[in-house]
Amino acid sequence: MRHISAALALLTVLAVTSPVGAQTAPTNIIREVRATIADQNFAAGEALIDQYRAVHGVTSEMIAALSWLARGTYAAGQLDMARQYSVDTHALAVSALDTGSLEDDYDLEIALGAAIETDALVRAARGDRSSAVYFLEREIETYRDTKIHKRLQKNLHLLSLEGQPAPAIVAPEYLGSSVQTLDQLRGNVVLLFFWAHWCPDCKAQVPAIARLLEKYRSEGLRVVAPTQRFGYIVSGQDAPPDEELRHIEQVQNEHYAFLRNESVPVGDANLKRYGVSTTPTLVLVDREGIVRLYRPGNLSEDDLDAAIRELL
Amino acid sequence: MQRTASALLITGLFVTLSLPVSAQTPDVIDVGRLGPQIGDRIADFRLEDQSGRTWTRDSILGPNGALLVLSRSVDWCPYCKTQMLDLQSRMPELEAAGLGLAVITYDSTAVMADFAGRQGITFPLLSDPGSATIKAYGLLNTTVDATSSNFGIPFPGTFVLDTDGVVTERFFEEAYQERTTVSSMMLALGTSGPPVAASRITTDHLQATTYVSDGVVAPGSLFSVVFDITPRERIHVYAPGADGYKVINLNLDPDPLLVARPVEYPESEIYFFEPLNERVPVFESPFRLTQVMHVSAAREDRAALADRTSITITGTLEYQACDDRVCFNPQSVPVSYTVQLRPLDMERATVEPTAGSR
C-alpha cells in the first residue's frame, strides 16, 4: 500500500513539475493518455495511442503521450513496461529527429528527455546503478548542446554516488594482499577499480591505473580492485566456484600484474553495494571517505590523473 | 588456436551427449550428396495425381517456383502422412509466397486418393510407378531390401525450385522420422516474418522478438525457435569464435522428449578493439538466431508422448554485451514456448498399396 501511495505521489510530482501546461495546452492525445495513467489503466492508454497512430501516424504529440506511459508505469513500479515504453519512445523520437529538432519541437523534447530519464531510472531501480549512470553519460554526449542536456544532467547527479559516503568494502575472499577496509584506508585517496575476468574494457584500463598508482602511491593513492565470480570461464563454459577463482587469478596474473600486491576482494556484495553492473567502473573516494567520482566505463589516463590529483 | 579447437570439441561433445539416443539408429548415409543439388535443374516428369490429373515439372510451379517433396509413403509411413497435414495446413502461406507444391511417392493413385480423401489433402500427390522418377533423381533408398514391399521409396526430402525448375534449396534429413516443417523452411528461405504470437524481449542491451516457427508439431517435425535480435546503439554481443568471451546462446532446459540441434548463427561482424589490438567476432547489427529441434520420434518415447497434447520448451537466452568503453554483466533471459502435439497418422490405406514398383 505504501508502495502504491509512493508511486502515486511520484506520479503527481511528475505531473505537477512537468512544464507542459505552462507552455502549450496539452493536445488531446496527451491529455487523454495522462487521464488513463491517473487511473492506472495503462492498457487503455496504449490503446488510445494505437488508435491515434492508426489515424494520424507518428507525431510528436503521440511520442510525448507514449513517454507519459513510460513515466506512469515506472511510477507504478511496472519496470518491464516502463522499460519497453521508454525504449519505444526513444526509438520513435530519434527517428523523428531525422526531420525535426529538439529546439523547436517541445513535445519531442519532452518525449526524448522522459524516455532517457525513465530508461535510466528503471536500470537504477533494478540495482544497475552503473548502467544507469553510464547510459545517461552517453546520452549527454549525444545531446550535449540541446534542450534536454540539463534534464539528463540532473538525473545523472541523482543516480551517481558522488558526494555520498563510500559504502563499505567487504572481503569474504580475496586475491593479492589482505583487504583493508575503507575505514582502515581513511586518510588516503582510494581508487576502487571494479573489474571482471571476461571484460576487455577492463584490460584496456590497466596501463593507466598502473602508472598512476606508481606515480601517486607516495602521496597516498591506494587501489582496491573488487571483482566477483560470474559462474563461467573462458568461452562461457560453466565453471564451479573453485575453478572460476583459479581462472580469475590466472587472468589477473596475465593482464593485471600490477594488482599482485594490491587488494582484490572477490564477492558480489561489493558490486551490489556500488550498483556495479558494468565493468570497468571507477570510483574515487577522498581522504574523508566520500565518493568524488563514480565512473562506469574507461577513463583516459589524463582524465583519471586530473581526478586523482584534485583529491590528493 | 589450440584453445579454440578444444572448446569446439567440448561443445560438440556436449551436444552429442545431450541428444536422446534412439534405439532405432538410422543408417548413416550422406543424403546431402544424393540427388539434384542447388543450382541443378531437376529432370522433367509426367506423373498422375490422386484425382487422375497429370503433372509435369513445369506445371507444378507457381509464380515464384515450388516445393517438390519426395516422400516414402502416404500409406504406411506415419511421419510422411503427418507431414502432409503440415503441408496442407500451410497452403495459404505457400500460395501467398507464390510457391506451388507437389509430393512424389511410390504409392498407387488409389492409395493417394484414399489418403487425400481421408485427410482432406488438396495439393497434388504424384504417383511414381516403378519409382522411375525417384530413381532418375538418384534418390532411391538403396538400403531397402529389393524384395521388400518398401522397396522403391526415396530418401525423403524437399526441393525448393525456382521458376525454371532449378533447385535453390534442399531440406533432406538423415533420419527418416525427421521432416522440416513448412514454417521452418520458409524461415530458412527468409520468406516469412514473425508470427503474431511472438514475444518481445527488451533489456538494457538489446531488443528481441522471439517465437517458435510452428504452433502444432508432430514427433519428428523439425521446427525452429527463432530470435530476431537488435543490439541497442553502440552495443555488441559476442559471436561464435570470440575466444574468451561469452557467446550469445540459447540454453535450453533439458527435456528427454525434445531433441535440439546446435544454435544456428548468421555470419558475424569483426569488432576491432583498439586498446587491446583485438579483433573479435561480434553481432552489432540486427541478426537472427535459429535453433532447430524436434519432439522425439524414438520408439521408446512413444509411451511418454501418448497422453501429451502439448510440449513446453523452456530455456534462457544468455549473452554478454560490451561497447567501446564498458562491459555489461552477463545476462540470462528466461524464455518459454508451447507447441501443440499432432499425433502421428497411423491409419493405413484400405486399397491396393503401391504403384507397382515390385
Q: How does this model look, in words?
A:
The complex is a heterodimer of chains A (312) and B (358). By secondary structure, chain A is α+β, with helices and mostly antiparallel strands. Chain A has 14 helices and seven strands. Chain A has helices spanning 2-17, 20-23, 28-38, 42-56, 60-75, 79-96, 106-125, 129-142, 149-159, 182-185, 200-216, 241-255, 268-273, 301-311, and strands at 173-176, 189-194, 221-224, 263-266, 278-279, 281-285, 291-296. In chain A, the strands form two sheets. Chain A has a four-stranded mixed sheet. In chain A, strands 1-4 form a two-stranded antiparallel ribbon. In chain A, strand 6 and strand 7 form a beta hairpin. In chain A, helix 7 (106-125) runs antiparallel to helix 8 (129-142). With 358 residues, chain B is of the alpha+beta class. Chain B has seven helices and 22 strands. Chain B has helices at residues 2-18, 78-89, 91-96, 109-119, 132-136, 182-189, 302-306; strands at 46-48, 54-56, 66-70, 100-105, 125-127, 157-161, 167-172, 179-180, 199-202, 206-212, 216-217, 221-231, 236-238, 249-252, 258-260, 269-273, 278-283, 287-295, 310-319, 321-322, 327-328, 331-341. In chain B, strands 8, 9, 10, 12, 15 and 18 form a six-stranded mixed sheet that branches. In chain B, strands 5-4-3-6-7 form a five-stranded mixed sheet. In chain B, a hairpin with a 5-residue loop joins strand 6 (157-161) and strand 7 (167-172). The longest helix of chain B has 17 residues, at 2-18. In chain B, 44% of the residues are buried. The model of chain B is unreliable at 1-26 (pLDDT under 50). The interface between A and B is medium-sized, with 33 and 31 residues.
